[in-house]
Write a structure and sequence with these properties.
By secondary structure, the chain is mainly alpha-helical. It contains 11 helices and no strands. It has 2 domains: 3-85 and 186-248, no CATH class; 90-185, no CATH class. The protein has helices spanning 3-15, 29-42, 47-52, 58-112, 117-127, 132-148, 150-155, 161-181, 189-215, 220-223, 229-237. α4 packs across α6 (132-148), α4 runs antiparallel to α8 (161-181) and α4 runs antiparallel to α9 (189-215).
């Protein structure tokens, strides 16, 4: 079954993970996924003995599906994060130009409408406020105002193409700002689902490892298949790692 199919099969159970159980992966996801794959094969030899300890074998059968769902969730989050990073780069490039266009229009409109109190006041109102969202709205408001008063703008030699440019820029920058600010990568829907998918897979491997460690506590040869190689390696380098036990270190 493809990872996308696993994801669709498991998404309801993943989303049901309570938010207060949410945690980010404690190791690189690709490493964790490989450990899940290794474990699902390793335990087959011990099936009857593990079941005798009380292990629900459905967790073993379900492990590849949980791994596939996590792999897909990781890919979706990575794609979303990359898209946001690209949007942030584009925003940093285009925002100064958009602000400059807004300021240019305000400057020209103040001059063109200086002898009309009503129009001058409307320009002043548009000029109020600050921030990205305000700039985006200003561009659209100025475009609409300018198109209604072409005659006054023509008299000062105003470049009328700037009105269409302002309208287009307003739309483009609004979309870009949404990509940058909505569900930032560290708290995005994709990130939350990825973390829940990790928890979901970890719940299964933790229980399998706990049973295996109980069963093979005096059999080092079989026990090695029920611990995290990643954290075992880290312990050799650091005698006091963050994780407190192999059953909890997926």
């Amino acid at each position: 079954m493809a990872s996308s199919d696993d994801y669709q099969a498991k998404i309801a159970e993943i989303e049901a993970i309570p938010d207060d159980e949410l945690k980010s992966p404690s190791m690189p996801v690709d490493v964790f996924l490989q450990e899940l794959e290794n474990s699902s094969k390793w335990v087959q030899e011990d099936k009857d003995r593990l079941i005798a300890t009380g292990l629900d074998w459905n967790l073993v059968d379900d492990l590849p599906l949980r791994a596939g769902a996590l792999r897909e969730a990781q890919s979706l989050w990575f794609r979303a994060r990359f898209a946001r990073e690209e949007a942030e780069k584009e925003w940093k490039t285009k925002a100064p130009e958009a602000y400059d266009l807004r300021d240019t229009l305000l400057h020209d409109f103040h001059f063109a409408f200086r002898n009309d109190p009503n129009l001058a006041k409307r320009v002043s109102v548009i000029a109020e406020g600050s921030g990205h969202a305000d700039m985006i709205q200003d561009l659209n408001d100025l475009a609409l105002l300018g198109k209604k008063h072409v005659e006054e703008l023509t008299k000062i030699g105003f470049d009328m193409t700037l009105l269409d440019q302002a309208a287009v820029t307003s739309d483009d920058m609004a979309s870009l700002l949404s990509s940058v600010t909505t569900d930032r990568a560290d708290r995005s829907v994709e990130r939350i689902i990825r973390d829940k998918a990790f928890v979901y897979a970890k719940q299964a491997i933790d229980e399998i490892r706990a049973c295996g460690q109980y069963l093979f506590w005096r059999d080092d040869e079989r026990l090695k298949g029920y611990v995290s190689h990643y954290f075992r390696t880290r312990r050799k380098k650091d005698p006091a790692p963050d994780e407190t036990g192999d059953a909890a270190s997926g």
